[in-house]
Design brief:
- It is a single chain.
- Helix 6 links the parallel strand 3 and strand 4.
- This protein has one domain: P-loop containing nucleotide triphosphate hydrolases (Rossmann fold), CATH 3.40.50.300.
- The protein has eight helices and five strands, in the order H-E-H-E-H-H-H-E-H-E-H-E-H.
- The chain is an alpha/beta fold and about 230 residues long.
- Helix content is about 35%, strand content about 15%.
- Helix 1 packs across helix 2 and helix 3 runs parallel beside helix 5.
- It has a five-stranded parallel β-sheet, with helices on both faces.
Length: about 230
């Protein structure tokens, strides 16, 4: 078994319970200041994906400028490489929900990010097809291409409603996908965001919740030096 990346736990999931595994341009880890603990927490939540299993869904809270998006992108990027070393194909998609506020826009962005039309033969147009058709094509892409997919929904509180969260969090249970596992990382600067969630979404999406504290003066100084 390859040992190329030590961020993730590589114990055999047959003998280890999932919970026991808890232990754009992206900078190197050494240039991400003051977020070692948060990176490890996110890695622990995503760790099962290395084995082709379902990662824990995560909600990340914190004020603007606390490194939430940076850390989420960093961990998922490393996860893709680590999983590949283990023979597992992981895909990632990033959605800026402040821009893609509707269910249709978000579904299109996710499908387009994960689709390789030369491989799948599937076309994901910018517009012109129904939301249901975007979903049907997305489910086909996932099952045909990936073992696991992690989807980052940045500024998740800007979504018009919970529809896409319901679709993503319950796709396997609803029989929309057969083999691919989906993990969702929601990011918000509104600590009370989940209070307005549909209870069904809340039960499946809020498996883990992390709060990123503001940087202190020393960390801000280190960030300036790193830049």
């Amino acid at each position: 078994m390859s040992q190329g990346d030590d961020l993730f736990t590589r114990e055999d999931p047959i003998f280890t319970d999932k919970e026991l595994l808890e232990i754009s341009h992206l900078p190197d880890e050494g240039r991400i200041v003051g977020r070692d603990d948060e990176i490890k927490q996110l890695a622990n939540a995503a760790n099962p994906a290395i084995f082709g299993q379902s990662p824990s869904n995560v909600l990340i809270y914190g004020k603007t400028g606390t490194g939430k998006s940076l850390c989420a992108k960093y961990v998922t990027s490393r996860l893709v490489d680590t999983a590949e070393e283990e023979g597992v194909t992981v895909g990632t998609a990033y959605v800026d929900c402040a821009q893609d506020t509707t269910e249709t826009q978000a579904a299109q962005t996710i499908a387009a990010a994960l689709n390789d039309d030369e491989l799948t033969g599937i076309n994901i147009p910018d517009k012109g097809i129904s939301t249901a058709t975007y979903y049907k094509r997305l489910w086909s892409i996932l099952d045909d291409t990936f073992d696991v997919v992690l989807i980052i929904l940045d500024e998740i509180d800007k979504l018009e409603d919970d529809s896409i969260l319901m679709q993503l969090s319950r796709a396997g249970e609803a029989g929309k996908i057969d083999s691919c596992k989906i993990g969702v990382v929601g990011i918000s600067n509104k600590i009370k965001y989940k209070e307005r969630m549909d209870e069904r979404v809340k039960s499946s999406l809020c498996e883990r919740e992390f709060v990123f504290p503001p940087y202190d003066a020393e960390q801000l100084g280190e960030i300036m030096q790193a830049q």
